Amino acid sequence: MKHAAQESAGLIAPAKARSELMVWEALNIALDQALAADEAVFIMGEDVGLYGGSYRVTQGLYAKYGEWRVRDTPISENSFTGLGVGAALVGGRPVIEIMTVNFALLALDAIINMAAKLRYMSGGKLRVPLVVRMPGGVARQLAAQHSQRLEHTLMNVPGLRIVAPGTAQDSYWQLTQAIREDDPIIVLEHELLYFKKDPFNVHAEAPPLHSAAVRRAGAHVTLIAWHRMVDVCLQAADVLASEDDISAEVIDLRSLKPIDLPLLVASLKKTHRAIVVEEDCKFAGAGAEIVAALQEAAFYELDAPIARAAGADVPTPYNGALEAASIPNAEAVTLAARRMVGAREE
Amino acid sequence: MQRDLVRQFLYDMLLARRFEEAAAEQYTQGKVGGFLHLYPGEEAVAVGSLRAAEPGDYAVSTYREHVHALMRGVPPGAIMAEMFGRATGCSGGYGGSMHLFSAEHRFLGGYAIVGETFPVAIGVGYWLAMNRSPDVVLCFFGEGAANQGTFHESLNMAALWKLPVLFICENNHYQIGTEVHRQAAVVEVYKRGCGNGVPGRRVDGMDVLVVYEAARDAVQHVRGGNGPFLLECDTYRFRGHSMADGGDYRSALEVAELKARDPLLNLRNRALENNWISEEDIETLHQKAHAVVEEAIRFAEQGPAPEDLYYGVYRRPLNLYQGRP
User: Fold this and answer.
1) How high is the ipTM of this complex?
2) What is the sign of the dihedral through the CA atoms of A187, B107, B120 and B185?
3) Residue contact A125–B92, C-beta within 8 A
């Protein structure tokens, strides 16, 4: 009982670095270290303080740093995100948590009209060192208003940088790096990844914030993904290797703005085929930009049109089976790769 | 009332009036582009309230903000050059009339989406409170902005955390063409602060001495750690909403009545009646204001155009693909 009471009050300690961590723990360590290292850093959002964060990401930080550095807000997304913009203009390094990307739609004025534009509109004289964290993605039957992916909306905004860590290690690295940057950075998280356990080394050297990573090397087709779809691609790659003798390369994009195009092109030069696997909707989705950029950069390397396995163009349904059918799975990726690689051999 | 102060207010308002008239002339000649929202009629609000602030205090304003920038000490030439779209403008020619910024004068904009000044101001206020700074924030907004969600959201947070923010409503009675009684059930904006725990009062925004004294008291309240305050200034704009607005929705009689309450004219007459200043002194101030604005135009005309399309999108150019060739 005592433990439960403490936990509900957000008073248990922040996570400790171990060799294996869940994603939320890695984010928690990054925030704890950032708060300790720089007094300009403060956290703000709904239930980030006493409650400890709806996905536990800020657990223990309220007790450790106090209410001015870890602030519970009213349900006023546009104004508390805009508050972060104002504080960033005068020396603060706010880390704003928006409970889900769906609620960020209420804060787009602060993000798009203000954070993204103030440095430019002021002739480079103002700076907005603001981090906005928000989890998105299709989770478990949360229905249409709680399952959106907003990558495409934010990618089309000059002035924003967007990272999408999908592992515990990247979550730690990229959040730590984002807080140190002087531009507004969106850290897109995924609701289903918070409790995924990954290898973790707090001392390992971080790659550049916006670099992509090869998760599995391959020779016949490049699977490009981020967040949860990387795991889907890795499952597909296993099947393709064992059943089809197809060697798939899996790239975790890690960043959606900017995009590590050189790494993607290098992969294409090897495999000559690519599939973008994305959870967001296909029409004008993030994948559309990736495909367009790749054909501009590496058209003559291609042996087949670049394909997309993407979310269906529907508001996410509640029914579990329909929900599963609305986003790509390993089977869909396997089939797409089989079709693409097989077509050449026929 | 101190004579020096009256003299200062007269000069400030003469400069503000002349600056805006000149901006309109330059717009008509095609040298100022975009939207241009002018301040004549409302001068007492910016002058009275910002003269009650200290150099260390911050100001956040709307798209009708030239005079607020002037009162914060941003050079008239840098403001005019910005409207001319020149690199010598206070925003490098990237912002324009609606987006004046000058961090060194603690003037933080220049926001063209109605209601944005609230969250920016409470953000600055949060940072000041968190660091136990003695400085405060002056947040300007029109009565139309009180209909935005950010008004209530931000006032709630400001009161909840006792942030040092003075909200100053420039109630000019019109959100573009919609008069206040047609846009709000409660037409006195200060009353709408009360529900969010922000005390306030309404004063004659056409009288710079009244605004100054009210703002001084309000700044003292805010600086004393008592939380935010809402000062509503009942004012009027003599021109249309912007240069694109002829103002047909107001009767000539109404405009004439309000022009009879011209804050500049009224202060001038009172100052003369009370022997606070002589006709000659006023003429000197008048000529000085004209000369300063002429010099601002000259400075603006001579400024080079900004050349780097991508300057300032990010702190440093991103060295990976983001669509930039």
Assistant:
1) 0.97
2) negative
3) yes
